[in-house]
Amino acid sequence: MLVAMLAACAGGDGVEVAVPFSLRVHGAPLECGATFPGVGAPERDIEPLDGRFFVHDVALVDAGGAAYPLTLTPDGVWQDDRVALLDFEDDTGACDTGSPDTNDLVRGTADLDVSEAVGVRFTLGVPAERNHLDAATADAPLDVSGMWWSWASGYRYARLDVRTAENPLFHLHVGGTACTLDDGVYGCTYDNLSTVDLPWTAGDVVALDLGTLLEANDVEAPYDGEIDFVSGCMSSESDPECPPIFERLGISWDGAQGAATAFSTVAP
Amino acid sequence: MILWLALACGPRGETAVVAPSTWSLPLPYGFPEPPVPESNPATPEKFELGRHLFFDERLSANETQACSGCHDPALAFADGLTTSTGSEGAVLSRNSMALVNVAWNSTYTWPNPTLVTLEEQLLVPMFGESPVELGWTGHEAEILARIDDDPQYDELFADAFPGEDVSVETVVAALATFVRGLTSADSPYDRYLAGEPLDPAAERGLILFFSEKAECYHCHSGPTFSVAFASKDRPDPGNAFFNTGLYNVDGQGAYPPNNQGLIEFTDQDYDMGRFRAPTLRNLRWTAPYFHDGSGATLDDVIDHYDVGGRTVEGDYAGVGAESPLKDPLVRPMNLTDSERADLLAFLDALNDPSFVAEPAFSNPFQ
Predict the structure, then answer these.
(1) B98 contact partners, CB below 8 Å, separation of at least 6
(2) Does residue B17 sit within a domain?
(3) Minimal Cβ distance to A145: which of B119, B137, B236
C-alpha cells in the first residue's frame, strides 16, 4: 500500500511523454483514396477502407529493462487514462466506416525522463475487463461505433479493412473470440491481446505496416463457405486467412506471446 | 445475508426489500414483472416514441428499411421469409424472430448467449456490418439528424426523454421499450387459464404437449412457452439452448457451416447446434420455422419431432435422429393421426388474433 501511494504521488509529477504512431503500407503512410501496390502473396494493389486500432498499458522501458507505465492524459475523445484509439482513416476515398477526425499520438506522463527511454511497450487491443458493450453509453475512446463488434458484444481491437479492384472487401478485424457471460461477467476464451515490445527513443514513431502484416496473405483469395466464411480475417482460428496475420501481430490462440513483426519503430 | 436481515427486520416489521419498479406498461395476466435495466425504465412515452422509430425507414442508412421491414406486426413481428434480408440486400443466415413477449427473454437472437438486454441486442441490427442490416456504422450522425430535424418527433422526444438529446442511447432506449411492450396474452389458452373452456381437441393436445410422450414442455414452458424466461426477480434461468437434431451432416451431429448456434460463441464442441428455444405463441403468423427457416409448416415441425430428428436430403444431408449431440428428450413420439391433430389444435390455441390487430402496436405513419 505504501509503495502504491508513493508511486501514485510520483505519478502526479510524471514527465510528459508523447508516443507517435503511424499506419503504413511498405513504409508509406496509409491514406484513404490512395492505392498501394505490391501487397501480399501474390502481390496485389490495395486501397484502404479503414485504419484504426486500440492500444492500452503503454510503458517506456529504460536501459536496465525496467518498465515505466504511462498514465494517459484523458481527452474525452481519443484516450482515457489507460486506453487510446489510433485512427488513420479520414472518411475520404473508399473509407466509409469512420469519421474525418484522425489521431496518431498517445499522450501521457511517466516516471522516467524520456531521454532515458530505450524502448516502448504497449498492448494492442482493449483491456479484457473493458471489452464488453454494456450499452451505447461507453466513455471515450470506447464510444466509437465503428469499432463496436456487436455480434461478439465487444470491440474490434483493430479494424484494417482493405479492398482491391477484384475484391470489394477484405476484412481485417482483430478482437477477442469465443466470448460468453459467466455469472453475468463477460469474458473471451481467446483474448487475442498482444503485448508489443519495441526499441524506442524519444520522437521515434511506432509503425504498423500492412505490407508486413499481409505479406503471406492473398487479399483476393476466394472463400469457400465451409471453413472460410468471409474474405479476410475476423479473428477466427479456423479461418485460413487469420493465422499468418495473427502471427505477425504476435497473437496466438493459445495465449502465447509472439514477436509482433508488423510493428516497428521508425525515425520521425 | 446480514444486510438483508437488517433491512428485513425494520421497525414495523416490513419484509419487502424490493428494487423499484422499472415497468409502467400494461402487465399481462399471469406474467411477472420483466427484467428491465434500471437505466431505462419502461414508460408509455418511450413506448410511443419507440413505436414511431420502429416503423421509420429513415432509421436505415439508405432509408429503405425500418425495423418493421423484418418484424411486421401482421406477422406477429416476424417477416415470413426463410431468412431475412438487410437494407442493402445482404441475405442473413437466420430466420427473423417474432417479437412476442420478448421482454421476458433471458437472452436475445437465436444463438447469442451474451445479449441479455434489448439495449445490447439492438446494436446488432443497427450497427452490424457482417451482414449489414440497418447500416448505422459511419452514418449515425446523419441518421440521428433526420430524426432530430423532423418536427413530428419534437414532442415525442420531449415527452419520453425530457431535456435529453436525440442520440444513439435515446433511440435505443425507446426502441427497446416499444419492443418490450409487445405483449401477447389473450389466446384461447390464456382464456382457458382464466377459467374459460378450451376446444376439446386443443385440451387433448395440451395434455399431450405436457406429457412424457411428447416432452414438448421441457423446452417450451412458462408464460412465453420458452424456458429462456427471465423475470425481474429471476433474470437468469440457466441453460436455455438446445440441439434438437435438426441436422447431422457428418454423423457427429454437425450443423451446416456458419450456422451452428451456441458453439460459435463458446467454442465448445458440445454446444454445436444449440439454439435458444423460441416462443410457441402466435405460430400461425410466423412461418417458416426453425433458426434457418427450414421448416415451411407446422406439419414439417411436428414431422421433425415425431421421428426424434428429421432426415435431411440434398444439401446438408444427414439423419438428425442419429445425432449424438441432440437433446435426449428429442426422441420418436410416433404420434397417431388424431394425436397430431390434437397437438396442432393446442398450438392453434396459442394464437392471439388481438396481438396482430392491436392498434397500439401498428404503424403510426399509416
Answers:
(1) B71, B75, B76, B77, B78, B278, B279, B281, B282, B285, B286
(2) no
(3) B137
